Amino acid sequence: MTDVQSPRLIYLVKQLELAVRARLDLISREYGVTTTQYTALSVLRVRPGMSSAQLAIRSFIKPQSSHQTVAQLEALGYIERRADELNQRILRITLTDEGRALLESCDGAVNQLEEEMFEGFEKPERLKLQTLLNRCVSNLTP
User: Fold this and answer.
1) 3-state secondary structure 17-56
2) Which of 24, 53, 64, 70 is the most buried (most CB within 10 A)?
């Protein structure tokens, strides 16, 4: 009997990321946005008033790509930009009512995706996994 090594955890995390991304691509497309746009809108729901640079970091996109994403979302009417009160060169981004409505429309499908992903998990297991993943992120974030 040969000893078969299990895949590295890093490999499993990447497989999960790819599986989630594929499903988010389908969900987002159904609502007329890209996964990148959906992610940016989701981040703004939790952290309104970010700059484009801050939004890029939190949305996993390069600062150069952030400008295009923000411009598209603004053109679609999902966000608005306003000059910062203290520094007029910084534009603060917030969701519009249309942006909030889009996210609320997507919530059911994204909640279903999470339910499928965590099928068979008890609530304490989910919370423990969340804690462990947050610790992993913290360990690797400067």
Assistant:
1) HHHHHHHHHHHHHHCCCCHHHHHHHHHHHHCCCECHHHHH
2) 70
Alpha-carbon dihedral sign for residues 2, 5, 6, 12: negative
pLDDT digits over 59-88, tens only?
A: 989 888 888 999 999 999 999 999 989 999
Domain range annotation of the chain: 9-140
pLDDT (tens digit, 9 = 90+) per residue, 85-98? 999 999 999 999 99
Q: How many CB atoms neighbour CB 47 within 10 A?
A: 12
Topology of the domain comprising 9-140: Arc Repressor Mutant, subunit A (1.10.10)
Instruction: Identify the band that residue 111 occupies on the pLDDT scale cut at 50, 70 and 90.
Output: very high
Query: Which tokens sit at 142?
Result: 């400067």
